[in-house]
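A quick aside before the break. I want you to see a complete sequence-to-structure record at least once, exactly as it would be stored in a machine-readable document. Don't worry about memorizing anything.
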Amino acid sequence: MINFNKTSGFITLTIVLIIVLLVTAITLMTGKMLLGEQRSGSNQMRYQEAANAAQFGLDKAIAQLMNNFDNQVDFEIYLAFRITMLNLVIWKKYLSVQMLCRL
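That is the input. The structure line, written in tokens, reads:
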């Protein structure tokens, strides 16, 4: 007669080890994925805060410049201001595209 106790014990141990390894691998992959999601969310939040702060600064600068002109706009200053604003808008769109490419 063949003793099945030793063989079945080895098979049970092998199956348990495979299951433990699979559960460990799934746990590690899930943790890595959640960490990546958390980083992505943090980056998005910081990007939004920076964009809001930049927009606030631009709005405040426009308001101060308009108050300083008092309907007597110096054309050269106004032109330089418009060019600067255009460059900032282009830069903001460039940064937005760069952030979308990273996601």
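Two observations worth writing down. The chain has one domain: 4-102. The CA atoms of residues 47 and 99 lie 8 Å apart. We'll return to this after the break.
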